Amino acid sequence: MKTKPFSPFHYLATFLLLLSFLTISCGNDKGKVEGVNMLYGTDSKVWKTSKELDASGDKVKQTDDQKEERLQMFANGTFTLTRPSGAMSGNYTFDQAGKTITLTPSGSATSMTFTVETLTDDKLTLVGTDGSRMLLKAD
User: Fold this and answer.
1) pTM higher than 0.70, yes or no?
2) Which of 39, 42, 71, 119 is at 20 to 30 A from 49, Cα to Cα?
């Protein structure tokens, strides 16, 4: 059986097919902010940090303590942040239209407000006021 070499058209068609497949399969969730229930699932959801970036976009090396942090968001508007060195809990408010989340630790007069860049069922990206980013994934 004699095989025919690919013509330039076949190479172009194959390239375009692969390019479209990669574009579809590597979809970007950046900027996608779904409903507040994505934060807590049915009752609560645990988030862990997958990556942290500074304001210039450079990766920040996490300490062992930071690698073990878990942020649990509850449907009743409370949160708990646990790490080996201790825990913090408090209340949060989520403004879906404004794409912000504000965490207020219990007993604290100050709060932390973040821009929510991405919120899907399994991804949460928080942007600090200084431009730093924390990428979290559902645990």
Assistant:
1) yes
2) 42
Q: How many CB atoms lie within 10 A of CB 123?
A: 19
Q: What is the pLDDT of residues 77-112, one digit of tens each?
A: 999 999 998 999 999 999 999 999 999 999 999 999
CA distances from 105 to 7, 23, 90 (A): 65, 41, 4
Among the four given CATH numbers 3.30.360.10, 1.10.287.110, 2.40.50.140, 2.40.128.280, the one describing domain 37-138:
2.40.128.280
Can you name the residues that pair with 81 across neighbouring β-strands? 71, 88
Q: Which residue has the tokens 């976009």?
A: 57
Which one, of 91, 81, 87, 86, lies nearest residue 46 by Cα? 81
Reported in sequence order, the residue ranges of the chain that DSSP labels E, i.e. its strands, are 44-53, 70-74, 78-83, 86-95, 100-105, 112-119, 123-127, 133-138
